[in-house]
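DM from R.C. (forwarded with permission)

"hey, sorry to bug you on a friday — could you get me a structure for this? deadline for the figure draft is monday and I only need the backbone to look sensible"
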Amino acid sequence: MKKLLIIAAALVISLSCLLGTDIVIRYKLNANIDKATYDNNIYTRNCSDYAMERIIDEHSIVVLGSSELHSSDDLAYPAALFNRGYSDFNMVMMGAGSLQSLPQAINVGALANNIKNKKVVLIVSPQWFSSGGVQDKAFCSRFEETNYVEFLQNDDISDETKAAVVARVNTLLEADPPTLKRAIKYEAMYLKHTLNPVTYVEMLSYNAFRNAKLRYTLVKEFKDLAPLDTDRYVRAEEIDFDALLQQAEETGLASCTTNDFGVNDEYYNEYVRDALETSKNSNIYASYAVSLEYDDLRLFLRVCSETGIEPLIVSTPLNGRWYDYTGFPIADRNTYYQNIRNICAEFSVAMVDFSEKEYELYFLKDIMHLGWKGWAYLDRAVYSFYKGETIEDTTTYQDLFGNGNVALSDGVTETGERAYTFTTGANENSFNNFYVRLDHDQTRLDAWDSVGHRAGVYLHTQPSGIYTVRFRANGNVVDEYIDLAVYLEENAVYRVNYSVDFFSTEQIRVSDIGFSKVEY
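My reply, with the result:
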């Protein structure tokens, strides 16, 4: 007993000394926090509740994402466009590679009380959605322990949601046993309330030391920041986003001279050129259709809902030209995009759907990261979200289904405007999927085997002319279809959409069938 008292007394004395030192550190930190910290998207700032409380104001939108938030684009990247926060509106960037849905859920839970206008933006990248979701070692390398403790201390988050996050975190932290050991103590301390008093004081002391060290590091980093350009104060409402998009396109054109993928020359020369031959059709079996990341995204939205945060989900596209080259199935890409739409609908949250910009040159700057036009589109969308305005979709669609020559096979009945029923005949094999293809070369544009909405785009690379687009209910023998004969232009982008309202082995009902030319 006496030994325990000595240990407890030592911890209390150490904690008192630490708190005294921390008062001095806080004073120095306050002297260096200013608007320049807006573009300082680094671990130490993002983990400091003390710093973020002073950085985020009602004229800011917190933007969460991964590696795209460390962009070198100096045209429309928010830090450049809004002059590092010397403006009447700013985007506070929080993200780095491997910071996916789960760690960003923890960040929202940790910072919810600091977010004055209760709005955040999450930029969702398709590459997150490999079958296993975020990789354990990558998660461990980015695990923000300070924010995790703040998350667990947030009383607005239900124990059920906390337990789901904790279970996922503990599984991933198995790759980092020392951190897992502390995480289990945090769970006992803040969720289960089963930690013994001595260990409780030990963890309080450890947390206080970690936070003080974090603030000390911030003091040094903030002192090294370049001064603001106070000769240029930005008023967001005066930005001409159409002109910005035009500039972005011109910049992209000048930056992508070595390839037809819309990949900037530096990236292409370093990462793509030498691997071009081996990359051809290398992803024909790849898929983002099933992934643990989808449930992590749901956890993110649960945390937002429980903390009163209004999220905007930004669904970014793949580089369609590159993914076509590597053979990544178009139908699988469409499934991924639809999964994101479905989850947003499940939680009744707003989203910006950039999926149909797969083939818009310079939206991305390489095969995965936002580029010149992508940032310009995003800036406008986020500013509209901040102001509570409708987010404008600048993509236009020229309807071709209504103007084309539509022919129905036996077994297909038109039941309404752009609505059809496919029915198998007696003694015929059953339906097993519904798909869309270009009939002349069997290019499959989409495929689906159950009820749901579908939409996707593709790039027509064949010579201009009349082609048949077939909407087909398929089986081993059954071949019932709708044929659309339509004029397609070389290097034009087209959109396919439809909804499967009923699906069985003997009958399929579809509606809202569309086929359009896309204009960016």
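R.C.: lifesaver. Residues 399-519 form one domain.
me: no worries. The mean pLDDT is 89.
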